[in-house]
Structure formats: structure tokens, C-alpha cells
Design a protein that fits this description.
CATH topology: Amino acid/polyamine transporter I
Largest sheet: none
Helix content: 55-70%
Radius of gyration: 22 Å
Number of strands: 0
Distance between the termini: 5 Å
Number of domains: 1
Order of helices and strands: HHHHHHHHHHHHHHHHHHH
């Protein structure tokens, strides 16, 4: 089915490159798209904050756990890149699965996907608020409540998302470059001035992990750490030449951050000392902050600023992605049509932004009290990984049918059979192994939360079908431009 394409002010050789959309088409280019994926992976948080937890499970083989997650992410990212070559939609996986496997499957994927981005601001706000509280109290005896940062973050991301994707894109490019530079510099100091045990390649041997179960659990959390590259797909309707730059942005972000996380984790463990991995894991302060003070003295503040930058940048991206997913669900009729309202000047999905802001406030201020502010990050991070399994597996199946049925001349066994199959098996295996035995409390809550949420989605879907609300099924797979099928 050929789609209409906005052709205002474009040359003949550029037509079929812009989306017809109420959002602001042609607003951002490759740098903005690429940095959306990079900052949504949250380089500083992924590379500095998650490493002690991954090392707890993988020992000095933590960099190898990151590498395993990188390989899985690269295969999954290739699948998404293949989908975005022929479909452009703010609804991302919701639209893509609806288009390839049907509206009912797409609705359930979109439903599960709501466990991803709408929760991130609460997660990151808790992490950063708790980190600031601990650091300021320990070093300066200043009692800075975590919820103050949470409120600031909610207001900050509301403003940037409301004002438009161009402002958001500019901010995340600046913040992202700073945090990446700080993390890489810290890693290089660790590699060239290591602690006891020296700089070695012993992390390449998975037998150095405490157990095979621990190593699998480390990969689960490392998958979450590198997750976020799919955020670029929601910008297809607002980017220039999305058929070209969206796939490049997805794969570019995965490759950049895959190499980055392996190097940064290796550098930190080396800097601390591979012979004292237990001290690294059990440090009362975040190891990155300790290493920052070791190498840079008062310059350890740059590490803290990198974490702050990372929290702001990833929150901006997730606010934008969440709002656009709600916008797409409203546009199709799966959710209220009010969510499809767009600001007349800024071309942002205003009601969807209000909804996401309400979610940020509810989860951000209540979830930490329910399970403890220090537990929010790990519980939701593991939950994201379990929620990703059905979403990515559905997309893997969908890409096979898309190219087999609609684009047989482009069908590629590696991209459309091997990568989807191998990555699906890897996700299922890693998820299974991470539950044998069950994780400790409260991380054990992650899988049941995903299962219960999926059951609720099935109940909602059945209710919608029985009530006669079926018109959205025909619209659910509507890609908003540049499709050639």
C-alpha cells in the first residue's frame, strides 16, 4: 500500500523522504537521531552505576556480560532497522507489529511496551536523587532529600518535551557528549594506572564469574543497561530522510555504546584492582566516584556531573518517546483520541505529554516509598528486560513476514531469519536462566509484574473486542509515511 508523503518545498529527488504527520516533520537530522539513541542508553548511568551490580553477578567477567548483551542488542537493532526501512511511525513496535502480525498482537506489544519508557523518569529520578543524597550527606553533611531532585526532573522534562523535539535534540547532544567524554577518560586512567592485579584480559573467560546463573543474570541486567537504542524509531515522523537516518542511528548507537560499555567497565575494574573485586562490589560509595577522587582529586565532581547529565538526557528522551507512543495509541483509537492532540505552534503531543507527566509524578513519588528508593533502579531495570522479551520476539517474527510477503526481492536469510531466530532464543534462554534460582528480594518482583501486566492487557483487549470497538484494529498498523508496500 503506497502512503502519501509530504512534499512541501522538496526537490524531486527528495520526495518520499518526509512523513505526513501532525507532528513537526523534517525537524531533526542524523546527529539528533543518533544522540537520541545514545543518550537514551544513558552512557554514564549504564557505565558507572550499573557496573557494581553486574560485577556482583559476573565478577571480573562483567565486561564480557556487557559484550554478550551488545551482541544480542546488535541483532535486535538490525531487525528494528530493517522494519524502519519500510515503516515510519511514532508508535514504533506497536505500529510495526500491528502492521506485520495484526492489530491484536500490536496492541499487546504496545501494552507491554508501556512498562518501558513511561517508568524511566521515576527510575532515573530515584537513582539520581538517592545518589545526590548519599554523596552530599557523606562528604558535606548536607541532607538533600531525593524527592527534591525528582520534582525538578519531572518539571524539567515536561518543559523540554512541551517546547518541541528540536530543543530536546539540542540539549541531549550537549549533555551526551559531556558524559561520554568523562566516562571514557575515567576508563583510560583505570587501564593505564590500574590497581592490584593490573590490566588483564582475564575478563574474557566467563569461568571467572561466581556462577553460570550469576553470569546469565549479569547479561539480563546488561541488556537493560544497553537498552534504549530503539528510541530513535519513534522520531521517524519528525526526522529528515527517515528511511536512511533512522536505521543508521539505531545501529550506530548500539555499536558506539557496546564498545563504550565494554571499555568503561574494563577500565573501572582495572582501576580498582581485579584482585580486589569484592571491594569494588561492596564499596559503600559508588566505585566511579572513588576512582574519580583517586585520579582527579577534587575533579571527582565531573563524575557526579556526568551522572547528573545522564539522568537529565535519558529522561528527556524517555519523556518524548512515551508521549509519542501514547500519541500513536490515541491516533489509532486504541486509547482515547484526546491523546492525539498536537500543539498548534510546537507540534508536540500535548495531552500525551500531560499524561506522561502525571505518570512521572505518581510513580516517581510513590514507587520509592513502596519498595525503597535504593531498590527502584534494579527492580525496574530487571523488569524492563523481562518486558523486552515478548516485544522483541514479536518484532523478530514480524520482520520475517514483512520481507517474505511484501518485499521478497529484499529478503535476506541473515537479517530476516538468523538474527531474529538467534536473538529470540538468546532472550528466552537468558530470561529463563535468570529465574533459576529466583533473584533476591525485591528484584524477584520484576518477572511477576510483567506477567500480571500482560494478563491485564489481554483482559483489556478482550473487553474492547467484545464491546464492538474494532475500528482501531484497521488503524493500528498504519505507518505514517514512506512505506513502499
Amino acid at each position: 500500500m503506497a502512503e502519501d508523503v509530504a512534499q512541501q518545498g522538496v526537490d524531486a529527488d527528495q520526495q518520499n523522504t518526509f512523513a505526513q504527520t501532525p507532528l513537526k516533520a523534517n525537524a531533526i537530522g542524523l546527529p539528533g537521531v543518533l544522540m537520541t539513541g545514545v543518550t537514551n542508553i544513558a552512557p554514564a548511568i549504564a557505565g558507572l552505576f550499573t557496573i557494581p551490580f553486574i560485577a556482583l553477578n559476573a565478577g571480573i567477567s562483567a565486561p564480557l556480560a556487557y559484550f554478550g548483551a551488545f551482541i544480542i542488542a546488535l541483532m535486535l537493532g538490525t531487525v528494528l532497522a530493517q522494519l524502519t526501512k519500510h515503516m515510519t511511525s511514532a508508535g514504533t513496535y506497536y505500529t510495526f507489529v500491528s502492521r506485520t502480525l495484526g492489530g491484536q498482537a500490536g496492541f499487546l506489544v504496545g501494552w507491554v511496551y508501556l512498562l518501558f519508557y513511561p517508568v524511566v523518569v521515576a527510575q532515573v529520578g530515584s537513582f539520581m536523587g538517592d545518589t545526590l543524597h548519599g554523596v552530599l550527606l557523606a562528604r558535606y553533611n548536607i541532607n538533600f532529600p531525593w524527592w527534591i531532585f525528582m520534582i525538578f526532573l519531572i518539571l524539567f522534562v515536561f518543559y523540554t518535551s512541551w517546547r518541541g523535539i528540536e530543543l530536546s535534540s539540542t540539549v541531549i547532544i550537549v549533555l551526551g557528549c559531556f558524559e561520554i567524554a568523562v566516562c571514557l577518560l575515567l576508563a583510560l586512567f583505570g587501564l593505564f594506572d590500574p590497581g592490584k592485579g593490573g590490566t588483564t584480559l582475564s575478563w574474557l573467560n566467563p569461568s571467572h564469574a561466581p556462577s553460570s546463573h550469576g553470569f546469565f543474570l549479569a547479561i539480563v541486567f546488561a541488556i537493560f543497561a544497553i537498552n534504549g537504542w530503539d528510541a530513535e524509531a519513534c522520531l521517524g515522523e519528525e526526522s529528515r530522510d527517515p528511511k536512511r537516518i533512522i536505521p543508521r542511528g539505531i545501529l550506530g548507537a548500539i555499536i558506539m555504546l557496546g564498545v563504550f560499555l565494554v571499555l568503561v567497565s574494563w577500565g573501572q575494574i582495572s582501576g580498582w584492582g581485579t584482585a580486589n573485586i569484592n571491594g569494588f562490589i561492596n564499596s559503600s560509595q559508588l566505585p566511579a566516584l572513588v576512582l574519580g577522587q583517586k585520579y582527579w582529586g577534587w575533579g571527582w565532581w565531573f563524575v557526579l556531573l556526568a551522572l547528573l547529565n545522564s539522568a537529565l538526557a535519558v529522561s528527556i528522551v524517555c519523556q518524548n518517546v512515551s508521549a509519542r507512543i501514547f500519541f500513536a495509541l490515541g491516533r489509532s483509537g486504541s486509547f482515547s483520541h484526546r491523546l492525539a492532540k498536537v500543539h498548534p505552534k510546537y507540534k508536540t503531543p500535548t495531552n500525551a505529554i500531560w499524561l506522561q507527566t502525571a505518570i512521572n509524578a505518581a510513580l516517581g513519588l510513590l514507587l520509592p516509598f513502596a519498595i525503597g528508593v535504593a531498590n527502584v533502579y534494579n527492580v525496574t531495570g530487571t523488569m524492563f528486560t523481562f518486558a523486552a522479551i515478548p516485544v522483541y520476539c514479536a518484532a523478530n517474527l514480524g520482520v520475517f513476514f514483512l520481507y517474505r510477503r511484501s518485499h521478497p526481492n529484499e529478503f535476506n536469510v541473515l537479517y530476516h531469519v538468523i538474527f531474529p531466530l538467534v536473538s529470540s532464543v538468546a532472550l528466552i534462554l537468558v530470561g529463563y536462566e535468570s529465574l533459576r534460582p529466583l533473584p533476591a528480594w525485591p528484584i524477584v518482583l520484576a518477572a511477576p509484574i510483567v506477567a500480571v501486566w500482560l494478563v491485564i492487557g489481554i483482559i483489556v483487549l478482550v473487553g474492547m473486542l467484545r464491546s464492538g470497538r474494532k475500528e482501531w484494529l484497521a488503524k493500528a498498523g498504519q505507518a505514517m509515511a514512506i512505506t513502499s508496500d
